[in-house]
Amino acid sequence: MRTNGILMAISSLPSKYGIGDFGKSAYEFVDLIKRANIKIWQMLPLNPTGFGNSPYQSTCGFALDPIYIDLEQLEKEGLIKSLKPFNEKRKVVEYDKVRAHKDKYLNEAFEKQEDTKSPSFRKFIKENPWVIDYAHFTVLLKKNNYRDWYFWPKEERYAHYENKFDFSPYEKQILFIEWCQFIAFKQFLKLKKYANKAGIEIMGDIPFYVGASSSDAWANQDEFLLDENDYPDGIAGVPPDYFSKDGQRWGNLLYDWKYMKDDGFTFWTNRIEIQAKLYDWIRIDHFRAFDTYWNIDPKCPTAIEGKWEHAFGDEFFNQFLSSHKDIKIVAEDLGDLFPSVLELRDKYNLPGMNVLEFSIFDSKSEMVENQVIYTGTHDNDTLVGWLDKLTEQEKELLKILLKKSGVKGRSQKEKMINTVFGSPCKIAILPIQDYLGLDSKARMNVPGTCGEQNWAFRLVNFNDFEKVIPYIKELNKKFDR
């Protein structure tokens, strides 16, 4: 069945508090995309953001960032006395300032709440033991001035395993962290239920790697490649490519695939099972690393010095999908890939991705049914920005290619969008920036950089989006999506 979607980060939604959240504007967005006959809302990871505000460098791959909690709901429940707006009209998210503003109200609400005495809270903690690990890790991370956990004193480094560290002085802090997760999950699942009732599925995003300084790594040290001093024995990233001549040195820890296999792939099974409760579709970022991954020498400041290693993705998917047949997974399979990566994807019939900003100039690229096709993703320039930056030679080549394909449209932008919607790919998704025709200032992320603009784009209202709803409806009707 051919369908369509929109890529829109929760953080980019309008709100009165400087960042999008699980509140009023999220429900309004569901209503709007329903009117546009959009069937899938793709989000970026909702984990607590890490270095550079990236959701791909999180302190916990299971947790939801409390920054997305709807404060107005807490106010309605009588937990907040006088809620004041903050950065309501700012077109960018100022994460540190927004977090400080919202944390003040979250702490006020925590002081009045009775949730932590309820059976539903105890059930949440029992069913999600990672919450305790995350809370313990967070207090230790703050205690150690946010240094990576493998530099901590041994008593704290192994606190999850040996139970020698006394957490009792931090009991209130731990309970606050656990309560924030309880509220965040409750609010998000309510939003998902509303979207599903409106006929809209939610597509979530799982970063392949977890943050090096994360509760995931600290509480599961055997799952990662560490040396005898618990330091990283290899760093994740990618070799030199389209985005960077030095490659990308992400800094994430690498998995110990041999241990994972012997352990029955418990870590990855838990990760996907929890995400499957939150999302209808799961996009696995950097899927290729299930087959082969780039192992960078930790001493190398770039990603140039590395080597390809083999993972046990085939064994994992064979085991996992045999007992999880209903979970819908999208494989992010972009870049220069070994044939074995594509064989792994196709063996388990996982939809891949086609990004037109890349593939339009690639004569070897094919549009096939079992793909999700995009104009661009969060890592690409906006379509308007991309078109504007093409060289004269590239612009001329693009005209020839689009004319040859027979696609119609009043502009190159419209022809590119029509190419996406008219493709044989079963799912066509556009970032909201491309529906709105925004330029490079609205770009979500520039890979390999850590600028203030990254992850900061947000709308101040839905006025312009409402204006393009008739156009989106016509697109879906015209191309039978």
Description:
40% of the residues lie in helices and 11% in strands. It is built from 19 helices and 12 strands. An 8-stranded parallel beta sheet has the order 9-6-3-2-1-12-11-10. It has a two-stranded antiparallel ribbon with strand order 4-5. Strands 7-8 form a two-stranded antiparallel sheet. Helix 5 (130-143) crosses helix 8 (171-197). The longest helix has 27 residues, at 171-197. It is globular and about 70 Å long. The model has no long low-confidence stretch (mean pLDDT 96).
Q: Give the termini distance in whole angstroms.
A: 8 Å
Shape designation? globular
Radius of gyration: 22 Å
- Kindly report the oligomeric state of this protein: single chain
Class derived from helix and strand content: alpha/beta
Return the average pLDDT rounded to an integer: 96
Strand order of the largest sheet: 9-6-3-2-1-12-11-10
Low-confidence stretches: none
Count of extended strands: 12
Biggest β-sheet: count, sense, barrel?
8 strands, parallel
Note the beta-strand portion.
Answer: 5-15%
Total helical elements: 19
Give the helix level as a range of percent. 40-55%
